[in-house]
C-alpha cells in the first residue's frame, strides 16, 4: 500500500513549472546550484551536528525567563509610517514591512512549531506578538525558501483569504498550490528576475543555502534572498544564507537599502557554509550598502548549539566595531529605519548568562542591561528538527 504523504511536505514541481526550472541557468546537472561551492554539513553526515545539539547545555539555549514582547493589535497599524517605511519584527525571520503605502509580509510563520508534525519539532520560545488577523490587509507575501521556519503551511492557508500575492523562488509555488493558493496569485522568480506587484518591484537575489521539506531533498526547488523596492524606499531580506561574495553585487545592482534584514542566528561549525555568523551578517549588511541593520533568525526557535542570546550580543559588538547602525527590537516592536531607536539590550534581562560572563565573548563591552516589559509563558522543553539538519 502506498503511504500517504503529509500535506506539510508540500508538492513537487511538475508541468510548465518544472519545464521553467529545467531552463534556469542556475539548474545544473539535475539540481539547483549555489553561487559558490557549498557543503550543507562539513562532516557529510547530520549525526555530529545532531549530537552537538542534543548534548549542548539546554539551559543556555533557551531564555531563563519570559521573552518581553510588544503586544500588537490592528490599532497599532492604523496610522501609516511617517517616513513611508516601517518594519515590525514578528520573530525569527518573519518581518512585516510597510513600505510606500504597501504592506509586505516576509517569511510568515505563525505556527507553534517549525515542523511538519504538531507534536514534534522546535517549539516557539515566545508567542507571536500579534494575531495574524490583526495585521489587516496584506498586499504581498514573500517567501525566501521552503524550510519549516520560513514557510508554514498553516500560516499560508490562513493568508489565502487576504487576497495577497505570493512571491517565491522557482519551484516553491508547487507547495503553495498544493495548500490551496490559486496559481494566478503566485509569482515565481529565478535569481535576478523581477516582478511588479502591487506597485512594488520584487527581485529574487542569490543566496547560499538549500531547500528541503520531506525526508529527501528535492533538486527542483530554489532558495533566494529578496529585494523589495517601492517608489521611495527599498529593503533587503536575506532569508537563510551562508556568507558569499555576492552581497556586494546585490548592493551595487539594487542598493543602497534603507534597511537590511539579515540572518545572524542558528549558526554552527557543523554547517558554516549555509548560515552566517553574526560577524558575517554585519559584513554582508555593509557590502549590501544598507543604512540600518535589523538582525533576524534568532531568539524564537532553538535550532543550534549556541547560547540563546549569543547572536544578539555578537551582532551588537560586530556592528559597533564596524561603525554600522544596528537596531535590536523586541518581537513586536515597530520601528522606522529613518529614525532608528536607541539600542536596548533587552535580552540580557532574560538570558541564562553564567556567573562572571556578563560581557560578550566577541567585541568590546556593551552598555548595561536595558529595562524590559511584557509577559509571555515560559518556554517549553523543545526538540530538534526531525532530520537533524539546520533549518
Automatic annotation (TrEMBL):
Keyword flag Cell membrane: no
Pfam families for this protein: Lactamase_B_2
Keyword Glycoprotein (UniProt): no
InterPro entries associated with the record: Metallo-B-lactamas, RibonucZ/Hydroxyglut_hydro
Residue span(s) of domain Metallo-beta-lactamase: 102-298
Residue numbers spanned by region Disordered: 354-391
Name of the protein: MBL fold metallo-hydrolase
